[in-house]
Amino acid sequence: MTQLKIAIQGVPGSFHHQVALRNFGEDIEILDFDTFPSVAKSVVTGEADFGIMAIENSIAGAIFPNYDLIDRFELSIRDEYYLPIGHQFMALPGQTIEDITEVRSHPMALLQCKAFFAQHPHIRLKEDTDTASVARDIAAGNLKGVAAIASSIAAGIYGMEIIASDIQTIKNNFTRFIILQKEPLKPSTSVNKASTKVTIQNQKGGLAKLLTLIADNEIDLSKIQSIPVIEKPWEYAFFIDLVFENYTVYKNTIEEIQLNFGDVKIIGEYLSRK
Ligand SMILES: O=C(O)C(=O)C[C@]1(C(=O)O)C=C[C@@H](O)C=C1
């Protein structure tokens, strides 16, 4: 059987890489990219069978541009994965925290460790493409005085020493990843979660009425995120995740929203993994 091709942002040891292995197993071909738009493109062109994208973190919040990418590239969400995230502060073996003047990592990782660096103001923060590639580059370039924030798996792969463990602001830290595919999903009644984009007409109390309708139908709104409609300055669309027990009630709710509030795009229907 040919191996599935899975597109990720990041190199081996990155959190995306870990999700790929946990979700699809070891027998896959990983296509690694530097940016999220390249991941999206590889799924659209068929170069990759599926793509993996971080979408929100329990400390740092949503990765806004990824909502827009999924929408613009017309991708479908087929599944989700919650990965516990432990950030390790690492450098070349023998270095101490006093030796470090600069830390490089993925911007989301830096955000998750803000409190730690507030206590070490002598360390300059620099954004980089992903967590693990920094560990790789420090090792390859024998870079003294520079540290990475990455997983313990990355420290093992690239021979880095962990100077401080679990430096994220809250120990209990998770990133939600979504698994993307090009084709629209086949309807299935065995799902209990949907990701949608609702573009509501601007009317007084419109959003409040929409939320009331969802609550009245006993559907759990697990996430709401507004993003600007760029063609119409100061108008917003809402990415809304719904968790439900009854597929028919959910479908009827979507119909009611379309009838009374505006356009609904179903981005994915899948099983909640929370
Ligand atoms: O840099 C990595 O290792 C990634 O997989 C990226 C990423 C992200 O995009 O949020 C994934 C999980 C963590 O929240 C930090 C960084």
What descriptors fit this protein?
single chain; 274 residues; alpha/beta; D-Maltodextrin-Binding Protein, domain 2; Alpha-Beta Plaits; 3 domains; 6-stranded mixed sheet; 5-stranded mixed sheet; 9 helices; 15 strands; 34% strand; globular; binds prephenic acid; lyase; EC 4.2.1.51; ACT_dom; prephenate dehydratase activity
Question: Could you explain how this protein is built, in words?
Answer:
This protein has 274 residues and is an alpha/beta fold. It folds into 3 domains: 4-85 and 174-180, Periplasmic binding protein-like II (D-Maltodextrin-Binding Protein, domain 2), CATH 3.40.190.10; 88-164, D-Maltodextrin-Binding Protein, domain 2; 193-268, Alpha-Beta Plaits (2-Layer Sandwich). It has 9 helices and 15 strands. It has helices spanning 15-24, 36-44, 64-72, 107-112, 114-118, 131-141, 152-158, 206-216, 247-260; strands spanning 4-9, 28-33, 50-57, 61-62, 76-84, 88-91, 102-105, 124-127, 146-150, 161-164, 174-181, 193-200, 220-228, 236-243, 262-270. Strands 1, 2, 3, 4, 5 and 11 form a 6-stranded mixed beta sheet that branches. It has a 5-stranded mixed beta sheet with strand order 8-7-9-6-10. The two termini are 31 Å apart. The mean pLDDT is 96. Bound molecules: prephenic acid. Prephenic acid (PRE) binds next to helix 1, strand 3, helix 4 and helix 6.
